[in-house]
Amino acid sequence: MSAYQTFETERLLIRPTQTADAEFILELLNSPKWIQFIGDRKVYTLEEAAEYIRSRMLPQFERLGYSNNTVIRKEDGKKIGTCGLYDREGIDGVDIGFAFLSEFEGKGYAFEAAEVIKNAAFDFFGLSVINGMTTKDNFSSQKLLEKLGLKLMGTIRMPNDDEELLLFSLKRNEIWT
Fold first, then answer.
1. Most-buried pick from 23, 54, 67, 146 (CB within 10 A)?
2. What is the pLDDT of residues 13-26, one digit of tens each?
């Protein structure tokens, strides 16, 4: 995994998710807010979590050089969330996404990690546009996407899903410094 890019902030290490993160991914995927706002991934065992990483995250790293990152708090090495760039099947463009365990919300970690990943999307990976999608009732994610500079563009539906999601977008030339 060391071939893929790792990022740091003053408080955080943001590195590619690997199968060794299976226990953390299992906890995150089964957290109440993940299930409420992202959906039940039906990952209930450590082996299923490792397989989820192998089949859903690692192939995109191999194909594009970016995917899901595990966010680690430097002060104690605690895995607190994920943040990454996702090439979602059936959707044009790359989606910035983030999820944190509830005890680490409201401390600025999500913005800190997502700001680094947003900048990497443009400056390191050379993307010209990033999108963000969230449910209509996930006000925290909407607020974070707007704080990152993404603008509400309308709604979108994921393939094979009836739920209408809010679609946010930011073009490289729209970044304010």
1. 67
2. 999 999 999 999 99
